[in-house]
């Protein structure tokens, strides 16, 4: 069972390019650091807010725009990274009675949505992974991990033309995966949306049918060419048709394999969503014994069923985390879709949405 403690700790590390400084809020460091750190599956980074009370002028001067910050929080002997990013705005000093409030915001990770368009071509039989890595390298977008649920081969090559972040999302989507910002870093992870995976299946079905038709046509052309091989030109044409047929067959086999993989992924995701208790290995057990503060609440909209939870701050929980919930109203393993880590001076919590 996961343990938690009541004595909370907050640690803020700032690197302004010249040197690094760490500020702490714990029983031995009486500095008051409040924060609001949202997280979501949206590939556009979240904006996080930090408020520090009664900070000296000298320390305030250490903070600069674009400085790198790392937020950590937890309890005695159990502190972990919540997120990291770069300062985008420092507000004027504010006052609440006799206490000063130093407030700044930072962009989780780096926002690459404003990157200039790129145009590049990939050779025949390039994999989707190669395409994504190539786009990321060209645009200087670091991707920490790349996992494609249904790999794809571009048999005739691929032309990437447009905003790089959008191109990466597009290719990942066709492979049953999504681009996410997790704790400030970009990752391509499996998409667990059955709607999205069904779209992948439909696309792969159309591709397989088209490739099969081309293969059958290539067979017919080869058979026709075989009937007339008296001249050198006719024999050359036959050899060309045989090569075209072999290529068409290889393409058809590739699309058939891809279709099988996409159907399997969709079937597994659909089956899992119907189970009362998922079979995924949980990253964290959340119950009233490990920090759950109230019973999860249910909601249902166009995007499907969701459960909202509220617990003592837990740094292990972020977007994509697999959480095992045990309470009266909910007893199953689910995935975190979005949420927020926050501390306002009294409430030290993590709230979120499970699907």
Account of the protein in words:
The protein has 355 residues and is α+β, with helices and mostly antiparallel strands. It folds into 4 domains: 8-108, Pnp Oxidase, Chain A (Roll), CATH 2.30.110; 118-190, Phage tail protein beta-alpha-beta fold; 209-273; 284-354. It has helices at residues 57-60, 128-139, 164-174, 194-226, 232-274; strands spanning 8-15, 20-26, 29-30, 33-40, 47-53, 68-75, 78-90, 94-96, 99-108, 118-122, 126-127, 143-146, 153-154, 158-162, 177-182, 185-190, 284-287, 297-301, 304-312, 322-326, 331-343, 348-354. It has a 15-stranded mixed sheet that branches. It has a 3-stranded mixed sheet with strand order 12-16-15. The longest helix has 43 residues, at 232-274. This is Late control protein D. It comes from Lactiplantibacillus nangangensis. Residues 344-355 have a biased composition (Polar residues).
């Amino acid at each position: 069972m996961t343990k938690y403690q009541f004595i909370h700790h907050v640690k803020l590390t700032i690197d302004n390019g010249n040197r690094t400084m760490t500020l702490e809020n714990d029983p031995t460091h009486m500095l008051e650091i409040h924060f609001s750190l949202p997280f979501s599956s949206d590939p556009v980074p979240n904006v996080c807010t930090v408020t520090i009370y009664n900070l000296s002028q000298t320390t305030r001067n250490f903070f600069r725009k674009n400085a790198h910050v790392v937020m950590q929080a937890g309890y005695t002997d159990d502190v972990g990274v919540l997120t990291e990013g770069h300062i985008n705005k420092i507000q004027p000093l504010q006052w609440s009675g006799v206490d000063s409030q130093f407030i700044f915001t930072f962009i989780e990770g780096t926002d690459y949505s404003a990157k200039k368009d790129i145009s590049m071509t990939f050779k025949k039989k390039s994999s989707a992974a190669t395409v994504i890595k190539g786009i990321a390298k060209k645009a200087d977008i670091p991707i920490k991990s790349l996992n494609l649920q249904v790999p794809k081969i571009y048999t005739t090559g691929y032309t990437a033309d447009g905003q790089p972040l959008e191109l990466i999302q597009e290719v990942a989507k066709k492979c049953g995966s999504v681009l996410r910002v997790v704790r400030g870093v970009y990752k391509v992870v499996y998409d667990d949306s059955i709607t999205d995976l069904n779209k992948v299946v439909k696309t792969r079905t159309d591709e397989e049918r088209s490739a099969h038709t081309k293969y059958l046509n290539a067979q017919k052309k080869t058979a026709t060419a075989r009937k007339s091989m008296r001249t050198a030109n006719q024999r050359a044409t036959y050899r060309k048709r045989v090569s075209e047929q072999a290529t068409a067959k290889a393409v058809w086999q590739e699309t058939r394999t891809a279709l099988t993989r996409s159907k399997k992924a969709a079937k597994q995701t659909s089956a899992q969503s119907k189970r009362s208790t998922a079979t995924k290995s949980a990253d964290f057990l959340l119950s009233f014994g490990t920090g759950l503060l109230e019973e999860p609440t249910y909601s249902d909209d166009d995007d499907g069923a969701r459960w909202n939870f509220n617990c003592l701050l837990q740094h292990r929980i972020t977007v994509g985390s697999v959480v095992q919930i045990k309470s009266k109203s909910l007893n199953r393993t689910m995935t975190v879709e979005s949420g927020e880590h926050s501390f306002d001076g009294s409430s030290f919590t993590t709230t979120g949405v499970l699907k």
